[in-house]
Design brief:
The complex is a heterodimer of chains A (381) and B (401).
Chain A: H1 13-29, H2 34-41, H3 49-57, H4 76-88, H5 95-109, H6 112-123, E1 129-132, E2 148-152, E3 155-166, E4 173-179, E5 185-190, E6 197-203, E7 209-221, E8 225-226, H7 232-268, E9 270-271, E10 274-275, H8 280-309, H9 314-340, H10 351-363, H11 368-378
Parallel strand pairs in A: 1-4
Antiparallel strand pairs in A: 2-3, 3-7, 4-5, 5-8, 6-7, 9-10
Chain B: H1 3-18, H2 46-58, H3 76-89, H4 98-110, H5 113-124, E1 130-133, E2 149-153, E3 156-167, E4 174-180, E5 192-198, E6 204-209, E7 218-229, E8 233-234, H6 240-260, H7 265-278, H8 288-316, H9 326-346, H10 360-372, H11 382-393
Parallel strand pairs in B: 1-4
Antiparallel strand pairs in B: 2-3, 3-7, 4-5, 5-8, 6-7
Classes of the chains: A alpha+beta (381), B alpha+beta (401).
Bound molecules: flavin-adenine dinucleotide.
């Protein structure tokens, strides 16, 4: 934050309306208990395509997509408003893959043809885009893909294996990182129905859907490159910054919901003849979660605002939002389970899904210590 | 340009033209930094005094108070803009202190016309300094347990008892006290009144108390048959608790805002000390664990500033959020962590008390670190703030505390 002027951190009237509508819609139509149902049904999809289409009709998927690609032409801030609400109920729909990774990669680095071909479908809820960057042994460092892109006559030949590609099991396009030289890499758009592509669904604890994507000499044309040939690192870095902010918005919503449920519970549950919420040991810890959430809300809103209005501030604020969002969600989830007692560790209760998601989001796009290191570097120490 | 933007331009120009250059970048411009005034003030810095005079002349020491009481007659938003513009260049407000930040606003709300006319102009001009007579030996966190007695005798009140931890009673002219006017009230929060007392009144003894930092910012204040006119009662007799809480509300947010200083300054300060004491003139702090802690501090600081901004913005748009109560809790933790880290990086150079082998900055820092231990106690301890949030904001049931 510069000392002259703080960013505007409130929602305008339309955004307040949007938050309210999304909150009600999601609470009614997409409760967190769905995670258990999807897991148990093993239906091969893992989320609701119908719901995704309905949200497209409501305009939510195209909020940030420019009007010339059939979106609403609003900002990332507006998208963050919906993301926060989607986080409250841990929605497994492809927000992160399609809206935060795929769409941002196209908006930041895509050619006019690529954007025209794919973004209208995203806004309409028809096209899903995933990004594959994680590999065996990459351990959160996407900067040195083993997957390679070999020059071939009219394009490239991609070989390698990507792990835990979110929504890779159903994506219409998968953007993969592949080395183009000893030091550089690029992002390539791959159609998973192409020969040489094998997609194997993975099952994770957190209710999000992922897949292994194996590439065996997959031929793509040179117009499949997203961004420049050696520009993959810069582009993917910028995509991760935005995705971190979006994910932090979801973590904020999830923290808020886990916390609200917990406060409600400790008001009701009685032991020793009184509500357990009357015990100061629990009250003070609850306040500590509350203050963490309030701080996190400020940094998430500031980071989302920066994406729309002050791009220079994005790296710093994205790291801040991701680090704090992760710590806060983890804190809220641990306290939620502890304050629920035995019921909190049963599969029958939804609160455990918040714990699982807290762990998965903590590890996604860099864990807090990595973001603190980056913050220190950005501040010159 | 909207009206407010035009006003911002005007405020910016005025502040930058008039604030003496020596005061730039010296302050976080919180309500408790700079010139506190009062008849016992011994301030001699000519620039600070000139800045005070210019502020008074412009009526910008209390921008949002009514003009008839020495204020500028401006709106809250305009006042915020003026303070933000001072903060932007790091100059203190022309006049600071409890009178402006805590007592004055409450007297405006609860006092009568005569009291406002008597007291507010002197505060706005920095001529009369006020202190707070709340705490007593047996009434700290449990403030409502206070025992200072005020007994009516004709049109006078006679005060007997003791206050403690009275910050700057030795430098103040007046004290606003909580006194027990009805010892038989059914609840201890009832039967308390707010009484304004001139500290020169016979029967008052003020004794300074030394702190671990070596400073003596607070005092014991004894009342022995102190007679004050009943006209000095604020609001309704025996219903002072509401007023007391209103002042505490201003105190909490003022402490939070005072701690805030400039965005990024805590991180810069700790990094600078690390560079000095670890002999790392530039580049990364070599110890990754220490660097991680500094980054945590920097992140908390940024989050705190953004949260203060968000609270202020929502107050301006007419819907103050419950987050206001967190400023005291988080701000005081931030302050303590900043000094803890600043001390850690200094190693044994942070251990000096006075004399050779230590430079002035380090000696000052050590004392400021010691002073920072009070930040989670003063103005209502962190535990008490958490009790308040859990009851008022989270709606948790009261229990045995
Ligand atoms: C620097 C400084 C300046 C001050 N200036 C003034 C001033 O100008 N005027 C004035 O009137 N007072 C002033 N005070 C007094 C201050 O308001 C009190 O110190 C404070 O309210 C705590 O009261 P106490 O010191 O009696 O501690 P206690 O109330 O005895 O508290 C001791 C410990 O017990 C904890 N505790 C107490 N009750 C509870 C509870 N219900 N639940 C959980 N924990 C609890 C407290 O949090 C604290 O940790 C000042 C204090 C300081 C440190």
């Amino acid at each position: 934050m510069t000392k002259d002027r703080a960013p505007f951190l409130l929602l305008n009237e339309e955004q307040k309306m949007l938050a309210k509508t999304a909150h009600e819609f999601i609470r009614e139509r997409a409760p967190a208990a769905r995670i258990r149902a999807f897991r148990d049904s093993r239906d091969g999809v893992g989320f609701s395509r119908e719901l995704w289409s309905e949200m497209a009709e409501l305009g939510w998927l195209g909020l940030q997509i420019p009007e010339r690609y059939e979106g609403m032409g609003l900002g990332f801030f507006d998208l963050a408003v919906v993301l926060e609400q989607s986080g409250r109920e841990l929605m497994p729909e492809p927000f992160v893959s399609t809206l935060l990774l795929g769409t941002q990669a196209l908006l930041l680095g895509g050619s006019e043809e690529q954007k025209k071909a794919l973004l209208p479908g995203v806004a309409a809820g028809e096209t899903l885009i995933a990004i594959g960057y994680e590999e065996a042994g990459s351990r959160g460092d996407a900067s040195k893909p083993v997957t390679v892109a070999k020059d071939s006559s009219d394009g490239f030949e991609l070989s390698g294996e990507k792990l835990q590609v979110l929504d890779g099991h159903l994506a219409d396009r998968i953007i993969v990182s592949a080395a183009t030289s000893d030091t550089g890499y690029a992002l390539f758009l791959v159609d998973p129905t192409q020969s040489g592509v094998t997609v194997i669904r993975q099952s994770r604890m957190d209710g999000l859907n992922a897949a292994i994507v194996r590439l065996e000499r997959v031929r793509v044309k040179s117009d499949a490159v997203v961004g420049g040939l050696d520009a993959g690192a810069a582009l993917l870095g910028a995509v991760f910054d935005r995705a971190s902010v979006g994910l932090a918005a979801q973590m904020l919503g999830a923290s808020e919901q886990a916390f609200t449920d917990t406060v409600d519970y400790i008001k009701e549950r009685e032991q020793f003849g009184v509500p357990i919420g009357s015990f100061q040991a629990l009250q003070h810890r609850a306040v500590s979660v509350y203050t963490d959430i309030a701080l996190t809300r400020s940094v998430v809103l500031a980071a989302a605002r920066a994406i729309d209005e002050s791009p220079d501030e994005v790296p710093r604020l994205a790291s801040l939002a991701k680090a704090m969002g992760s710590e806060t969600f983890m804190h809220a989830a641990k306290e939620a389970i502890q304050m629920h007692g035995g019921i909190g560790v049963t599969d029958a209760h939804d609160i455990g899904f918040y714990m699982k998601r807290a762990q998965s989001t903590y590890m996604t796009f860099g864990m807090p210590s990595q973001h603190r290191r980056r913050w220190a570097e950005l501040h010159g120490y | 340009m909207t009206g407010l933007e035009a006003f911002r331009a005007e405020a910016r120009a005025w502040v930058r033209e008039n604030a003496p250059k020596s005061l730039w970048e010296t302050s976080g411009s919180g309500p408790f930094e700079g010139y506190w005034g009062g008849s016992k003030c011994e301030e001699t810095d000519p620039d600070l005094l000139r800045w005070r005079d210019l502020g008074i002349e412009k009526s910008w020491t209390a921008p949002a108070w009514p003009e008839q009481y020495g204020g500028g007659g401006l709106s809250r938003e305009q006042e915020n803009i003026i303070h933000a513009e001072m903060k932007a260049i790091g100059v203190p407000r022309p006049v600071a202190g409890q009178g402006l930040a805590m007592f004055g606003p409450v007297l405006l709300d609860y006092g009568n016309d005569a009291q406002r006319a008597q007291h507010l102009p002197g505060i706005a001009r920095g001529e009369v300094r006020w202190c707070q007579g709340y705490s007593e030996p047996n009434a700290g966190s449990d403030l409502a347990n206070l025992q200072l007695r005020a007994v009516r005798d004709g049109d006078e009140l006679v005060l007997n008892g003791q206050k403690i931890w009275t910050s700057h009673a030795d430098l103040s002219d007046w004290i606003y006290c909580l006194a027990r006017t009805d010892p038989n009230a059914p609840k201890k929060q009832m039967g308390i009144s707010v009484v304004l007392v001139d500290l020169d009144t016979p029967g008052i003894t003020v004794r300074r108390i030394d702190l671990i930092s070596g400073y003596s910012p607070f005092c014991e204040t004894f009342f022995d048959n102190v007679r004050v006119p009943t006209a000095n009662l604020v609001g309704t007799e025996n219903e002072g608790w509401t007023i007391a809480k209103a002042i505490l509300g201003h105190e909490r947010s003022s402490i939070g805002r005072s701690i805030a200083r400039q965005p990024g300054s805590a991180q810069r300060e700790v990094v600078a000390r690390a560079r000095k004491h670890l002999a790392v003139p530039e580049g990364a702090i070599p110890d990754p664990l220490l660097r991680d802690e500094v980054a945590s501090l920097g992140m908390l600081e940024e989050a705190f500033h953004l949260t203060l901004a968000r609270i202020q913005q929502s107050a301006e748009s007419g819907t103050p959020g419950p987050e206001g109560s967190i400023t005291k809790i988080v701000g005081s933790e931030l302050k303590q962590r900043r000094f803890e880290l600043g001390m850690q990086v200094a190693g044994t150079q942070g251990l000096g008390w006075e004399g050779p082998g230590f430079d002035a900055d380090d000696l000052q820092y050590t004392r400021d670190w010691l002073r920072s231990r009070a930040s989670t106690i003063e103005g209502g301890s962190s535990e008490i703030q958490k009790n308040i949030v859990s009851k008022r904001v989270l709606g948790l049931p009261e229990g045995k505390k």
